[in-house]
Amino acid sequence: MPTTTTSTAETSARETTARPRTRASRRRARGPVRTAIAIVLLALLLFPVYWMLNISLQPSGNALSGTFFPAHPSLDGYRSAVADQGGHLLISLLVASGTVVVTLVVAAPCAYALAQFRFRWISWALLAILISQMIPGIVIANALYTAYERLGLLDSVPGLIIANSANAIPFGILIMRSFMLGVPPSIVEAARVDGAGLVRAFLSIVVPISRNSLITVGLFAFLFAWSDFVFALTLTTKGQVVPVTLGIYTYLGAHIANWSAVMATAVLASIPAIVLLVVAQRYIAAGATGGAVK
């Protein structure tokens, strides 16, 4: 009888030891399969980007007859794009940079006030910010058109900056507020005791601590303004101020037979966004999740 009990215990121990090994072996077997699936999905997602770059280097400029790989790459499309769309790229860069400045200047103090001050109306203010995010951009653009016509802001860079900032500020407030909720009030109070005013304490203490969220909001504000098409189409009627998105739209009608120039313009318009995303990747991850864990 004791021998039977011992053998049963040994068998149970072997089964218990074998189960983790079986699970580990299954996970190892699934690893290459998951990697292969991820590579296929990544290739599918990046194929439009590759095809855009490929067509931009095709000598013929025809998207339908272009080869899968440019055997004899040509830079004629980029020369045409720089000559025709270089000014539009600079306008978009100016509008996007101004949008980042205005968004951070307005959203950062508002986010800190909503995070640190305790008032009954703060919940209603957050609800109003969320509702403003739900309004379609075309509705805002039509409303701004009438106001801009009276104020003389149509076909102007400041008008586009204000419009894009109005779209980015609510998003920036929500992102930075979730991060600034974790800023200890004691360090701000210590700066106040040392003689710093509210503005100086905010700039010297809160802003450096919230660097990740500021970079995240600034980057998204830049991308919002850089890729904007609705405001550019609605608030620029005379063709004096043309961002690159509207330039590509009008470029299609004039160069429908020369797709290399169109795709070259699209490649040049994608470079700033790609560079900023690569450079600020770690700040984006920290800023977007900083307020999620206390």
Automatic annotation (TrEMBL):
PROSITE patterns the UniProt entry points to: ABC_TM1 (PS50928)
Transmembrane segments: 33-53, 89-114, 121-145, 157-176, 214-236, 256-279
Bilayer topology annotation: Multi-pass membrane protein
Chief localisation class: membrane
Coiled coil: none
Region Disordered, annotated ranges: 1-29
GO BP annotations, alphabetical order: transmembrane transport
Localisation per UniProt entry: Cell membrane
UniProt keyword annotations, A-Z: Cell membrane, Membrane, Sugar transport, Transmembrane, Transmembrane helix, Transport
Residue spans of biased composition, Low complexity class: 1-11
Domain ABC transmembrane type-1 residues, every copy: 89-280
Domain of life, source organism: Bacteria
Basic residues compositional bias, start-end: 20-29
Family of this protein: Belongs to the binding-protein-dependent transport system permease family.
PANTHER family assigned to the protein according to its UniProt record, in alphabetical order: INNER MEMBRANE ABC TRANSPORTER PERMEASE PROTEIN YCJP (PTHR32243:SF18), MALTOSE TRANSPORT SYSTEM PERMEASE-RELATED (PTHR32243)
Name of the protein described by the UniProt record: Multiple sugar transport system permease protein
Organism listed in the record: Microlunatus flavus
